[in-house]
Amino acid sequence: MSKESRKFHVPDALANLYDFANTLDLRHFTHHRVEHAQGDELKSPQDLASWMAARGLTRAGAKVTPAMLESALRLRTALREYLQQDPANRHQRSATRALNEEIAAFPLIAGFDGAGKASLRPAREDALSGLSTLVAELYDAARNGSLDRLKTCAAEECRRVFFDRSKPATRRWCMSSLCGNRIKTRAYRARQRAAE
């Protein structure tokens, strides 16, 4: 769990998915006259290895190759595209096709632990086994319904993945005070111009 996921009260079971999706920062807006700088935390195999090690998803010093990085980036892209869909539409084949193609590279094995509890664990034994753990978390979250609360901010200049903590799960923006306010202000000004 990262400082960012703790700050926004993302449940532990979704924190790695939240953090992984947000390793790509596409925000491009100005706030208090400061332009937000876009970025990607996973620019190199070493970045990916460090990111996974910091979350306990792989052992420190695991060797991530450029091909493994590409596979991880494709998974992230498919996950972000899936989370952009309205939760009510995520069951449609068009919404799941790309994600299903990418998660196939991260197989899981069902098993039981010493206490008889069933779980899914990575079938991979390489440096990317931790991403199979993310796929298991994705499966668990979809099964228990909590994945519906991971959404993409509706503001085009943001597109950040956020956890919807609202009781009815109807939030559209990562932060109402920033993204929501910008969109509402823009709509208000458009209505004023149309009325003139």
Largest sheet: 2 strands, antiparallel
The proportion of strand residues reads 5-15%
Overall domain count = 1
- CATH class descriptor: Mainly Alpha
Q: What order do the strands of the largest sheet run in, or round the barrel if closed?
A: 1-4
Globally, the shape reads globular
CATH fold description? Jann2411-like fold
Overall residue-averaged pLDDT value: 88
Radius of gyration: 18 Å
Which spans of ≥5 residues are poorly predicted at pLDDT below 50? none
What does this structure look like?
This protein is 46% helix and 12% strand. With 196 residues, it is α+β, with helices and mostly antiparallel strands. The strands form 4 sheets. A two-stranded antiparallel sheet has the order 1-4. A two-stranded antiparallel ribbon has the order 2-3. α2 (12-21) packs across α6 (129-144) and α4 (66-84) packs antiparallel against α5 (93-103). It is globular, with a radius of gyration of 18 Å. It starts with a helix and ends with a helix.
